């Protein structure tokens, strides 16, 4: 004969057993091992996502080379803009080059003829074209008077820094006058071994104005 338990007691036992299973599951979930396992699972999932993202970004970087790994859409307007910038840069470089060339051209010496050169009591009067020439060397900062006498040239060389006073008189329709005063004696040179179609060779020489250039200012007309 089988004895069946009381129905109320059976329900109570089943309920208690369910509670026991729930407590066991809660305890298991609260255990350090379960926490570590869940964290490891989450970390693995996150790493997997990051690896996937890194792979996709690497593929994008390879598809479009860029230091920052960014994609650049080469639209026709962007290409036109780049070409325009390149053309402008080339023009700016050409302008700078031409400006440098023009500046170097401006630094070339300026020559102008003279009729009379007076230094104290010494005087040189031009007798024909080219025998008395003043030259201004902008690059070297020099002022030079050249005198042609007996087939040989002589010159007086003055540094700009030695000029302590200057006066220019330029009347209309008349020859101009340039007067300068120096703080120190100028340098004197004489041409040596002249040869046609070659640069003039100069040799330092003594004051050929009879010492007047050492104590007086120069006056040119």
TrEMBL record:
Domain of life of the native organism: Eukaryota
UniProt region (Disordered), positions on chain: 1-68
Polar residues compositional bias, start-end: 43-59
Domain TRF2/HOY1 PH-like intervals: 111-217
Signal peptide: none
A Pfam family the protein falls into: PH_TRF2_HOY1
InterPro entries (alphabetical): TRF2_HOY1_PH
Protein name, as recorded: Os09g0128400 protein
Source species of the chain: Oryza sativa subsp. japonica
Organism classification: Eukaryota, Viridiplantae, Streptophyta, Embryophyta, Tracheophyta
């Amino acid at each position: 004969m089988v004895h069946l338990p009381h129905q109320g007691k059976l329900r109570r036992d089943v309920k208690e057993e369910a509670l026991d299973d729930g407590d066991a599951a809660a305890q298991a979930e609260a255990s350090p091992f379960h926490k570590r396992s869940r964290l490891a699972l989450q970390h693995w999932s996150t790493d997997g996502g990051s690896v996937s993202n890194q792979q996709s970004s690497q593929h994008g970087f390879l598809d479009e080379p860029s230091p920052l790994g960014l994609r650049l859409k080469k639209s026709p307007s962007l290409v036109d803009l780049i070409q325009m910038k390149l053309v402008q840069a080339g023009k700016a470089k050409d302008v700078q080059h031409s400006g440098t060339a023009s500046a170097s051209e401006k630094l070339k010496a300026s020559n102008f003829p003279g009729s009379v050169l007076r230094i104290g009591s010494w005087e040189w009067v031009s007798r024909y074209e080219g025998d008395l020439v003043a030259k201004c060397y902008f690059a070297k900062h020099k002022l030079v008077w050249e005198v042609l006498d007996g087939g040989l040239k002589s010159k007086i060389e003055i540094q700009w820094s030695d000029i302590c006073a200057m006066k220019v008189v330029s009347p209309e329709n008349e020859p101009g006058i340039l007067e300068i005063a120096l703080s120190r004696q100028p340098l004197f040179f004489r041409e040596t071994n002249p040869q046609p179609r070659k640069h003039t060779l100069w040799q330092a020489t003594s004051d050929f104005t009879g010492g007047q250039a050492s104590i007086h200012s120069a006056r040119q007309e």
